[in-house]
Fold this sequence. Notes:
Elements: E1 2-7, E2 17-23, H1 26-37, E3 43-46, H2 47-57, E4 60-67, E5 76-78
Parallel strand pairs: 2-4
Antiparallel strand pairs: 1-2, 1-3, 4-5
Amino acid sequence: MQTFCATFGSGWGYANGYVEIIAEDRHAATGHMVKEHGERWAAMYTMAEFASTIKRYRLHKLATVQQRPGSGELFFDIVKEEHRG
């Protein structure tokens, strides 16, 4: 599995946010974004390509989703993260 980040354009409600996607490959990650957000997203990056951009522009993670293992139709689950307080 690889980690990707999908961004949203400045004209959308999720501007300045990104979705972290853990998927088999870029094709699967892109498929998730098309299924969930249609044309309302901007670009797909690997985490390595995107890590410095997160800090530079103070982007916030909207969610982390992970591809379910197995063949056939792609399914993704939301990954719950522990909140530190």
